[in-house]
């Protein structure tokens, strides 16, 4: 079937059509774009930054309001709408945190997975247990590179501070399997971080579940 269109091409063409219709004022097309991307923006861009579900939901709504306002100026470049939406969501989160006088705190134990923490330039990125905006963006970018199951377990245990029992139920695994999954997710995160940003630190620890 040499003439078949690859599924990803069809999906991309469909999304581009939705974007063009939404830019022309089609509210139904914009709602479909929301349904397509809202969950990913929430889990990958907003929740890891604010770690407060109610606030995250408000910021998600603000993200799509901002997207609707700016959509006429969006230029399709083949990567889809998601990277643009994620950038809007992150910027709104960081603006909110700055206005509230808040910084983002380390997920307990997670610093062991960030090579820069033990590098000599760590003080330029960190204020003791607080994350700089730059490092938080690095973490978010690495999280977005993980497979969904690894990303989910890290979000539940390291960012949302859910119990092992709760996380295991959400992932439909035993607690023992959850611990293994978290271990592998941390290792995978570290590999992604080193691949993206490099490191002089070869050690790695597994945070206690």
From TrEMBL:
CDD domains: Sigma70_r4. Residues 37-103 form the RNA polymerase sigma-70 region domain. One of its GO terms (molecular function) is DNA binding. Pfam families: Sigma70_r2 (PF04542), Sigma70_r4_2 (PF08281). One of its GO terms (biological process) is DNA-templated transcription initiation. Residues 137-187 form the RNA polymerase sigma factor 70 region 4 type domain. Keywords: DNA-binding, Sigma factor, Transcription, Transcription regulation. This is RNA polymerase sigma factor SigM. It comes from Enhygromyxa salina.
């Amino acid at each position: 079937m040499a003439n078949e269109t690859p599924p990803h091409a069809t999906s991309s063409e469909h999304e581009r059509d939705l974007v063009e219709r939404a830019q022309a004022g089609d509210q139904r097309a914009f709602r479909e774009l929301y349904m397509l991307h809202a969950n990913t923006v929430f889990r990958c861009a907003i929740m890891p930054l604010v770690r407060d579900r109610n606030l995250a939901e408000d910021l998600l709504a603000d993200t799509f309001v901002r997207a609707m306002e700016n959509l006429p100026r969006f230029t399709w470049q083949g990567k889809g709408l998601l990277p643009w939406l994620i950038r809007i969501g992150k910027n709104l989160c960081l603006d909110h945190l700055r206005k509230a006088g808040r910084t983002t705190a380390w997920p307990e134990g997670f610093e062991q997975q960030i090579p820069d923490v033990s590098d000599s330039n760590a003080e330029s990125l960190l204020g003791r247990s607080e994350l700089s905006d730059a490092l938080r963006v690095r973490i978010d970018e690495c999280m977005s590179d993980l497979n969904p199951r690894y990303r989910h377990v890290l979000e539940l245990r390291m960012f949302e501070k859910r119990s092992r029992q709760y996380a295991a139920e959400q992932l439909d695994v035993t607690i023992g399997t959850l611990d293994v999954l978290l271990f592998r997710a941390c290792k995978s995160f570290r590999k992604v971080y080193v691949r993206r940003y490099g490191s002089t630190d070869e050690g790695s620890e597994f945070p206690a579940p």
